[in-house]
TrEMBL record:
Topological relation to the membrane, as annotated: Multi-pass membrane protein
Record localization: Cell membrane
Protein name per the record: Olfactory receptor
UniProt organism field: Odocoileus virginianus
Family note: Belongs to the G-protein coupled receptor 1 family.
Pfam families reported for this sequence: 7tm_4 (PF13853)
Function: Putative odorant or sperm cell receptor.
Length: 314
């Protein structure tokens, strides 16, 4: 169906400029990041599933966030790594390009919704602790996760359809390491200004829409914590939100730079850097941000490792 609207049957990814030696360095660096991302997020998922002390809304959401991080980075990074090993440009079929862009945008949308839900969870935990278990019960948490996943995959159907509905006749070379929407729009010989404007509004709706509950939640959290008389109480309250807030700042910063701009075709070099933040750096940092200073998780992880050793010995 896509071929009816396009004279292009495949695209060529330019990837990263530079010498073979630079590509080898980039491959080693990104492969290390990707490996740590997979291992770290899988450790989070395994620990949350196995240890009963982590059966709470915060860790339930964290487990799903780790799943989304693994899937998001796996949509593009393996192809990027393969491209760094190959001489010249990398060929990608039109259908594969469409699927990659759809999965990337859908998973990213679901992740933003889940981050907003995690902010609300922290708000209820800090500002309304007596009703926390009633409000954030297992039924509510399950529905929040289901809605995040389903909405993300439904919401991105039209943007991807609109992108590949255009006629690509200028070239079939994408100045990127994956099928970036901005680069695809640049290859269109149709007037895509209206499509770009609609895509911009949809990106604003998702990113800003998920930021509003996050900002409101953290405003209420700060206001509540500052009213706590003891310094130790304030530090304890802030510590429950610090990891999520750090992730929010990094994640939203990258997304705002990458997607919320009226002209989607601008600045390929800057888009490449922002894409690396979203696809490589953020998923890599996720396990460290959420676990390194979390004594409860670290204790649970040690118990899981102890049980694994006992099973291997037995």
């Amino acid at each position: 169906m896509l071929e009816n609207y396009s004279s292009v049957t495949e695209f060529y990814l330019l990837g990263f400029p530079g010498s073979k030696e630079l590509h080898n360095i980039l491959f080693a660096t990104f492969f290390s990041f990707y490996s740590v991302t997979l291992i770290g997020n899988m450790v989070i998922i395994l620990t949350v599933c196995v240890d009963k002390r982590l059966q709470s809304p915060m860790y339930f959401f964290l487990g799903h966030l780790s799943v989304l991080e693994i899937l998001t980075t796996s949509v593009a990074v393996p192809l990027m790594l393969w491209g760094l090993l190959l001489p010249g440009m990398q060929a990608v079929s039109l259908s594969a390009c469409c699927i990659q862009l759809y999965l990337y945008l859908s998973l990213g949308t679901s992740e933003l919704l889940l981050i907003g839900a995690m902010a609300v969870d922290r708000y209820v935990a800090v500002c309304n602790p007596l009703r926390y278990t009633i409000i954030m019960n297992s039924h509510t948490c399950l529905w929040v996760v289901i809605v995040s996943w389903v909405f993300g995959f439904l919401f991105e159907i039209w943007p991807v359809y609109a992108t590949f509905h255009l006629t690509f006749c200028k070239s079939n070379v994408l100045d990127h390491f994956y099928c970036d929407r901005g680069q695809l729009l640049k290859l269109s010989c149709d007037n895509s200004l209206f499509t770009e404007f609609i895509l911009f509004l949809m990106a604003v709706f998702i990113i800003v829409g998920s930021m509003i509950p996050t900002i409101v939640s953290y405003t209420c959290i700060v206001s509540t914590v500052l009213k706590i008389p003891s310094g130790s109480g304030r530090r304890k309250a802030f510590s429950t939100c610090a990891s999520h807030f750090t992730f929010v700042v990094i994640g939203y910063g990258s997304c705002l730079f990458l997607f919320v701009k009226p002209k989607q075709t601008q600045a390929a070099e800057h888009n490449r850097v922002a894409s690396l933040m979203v696809l490589v750096v953020n998923p890599f940092l996720n396990p460290f941000i959420f676990t390194l200073r979390n004594d409860k998780f670290l204790e649970a992880f040690r118990n899981v490792m102890k049980r694994c050793r006992q099973l291997l010995k037995g």
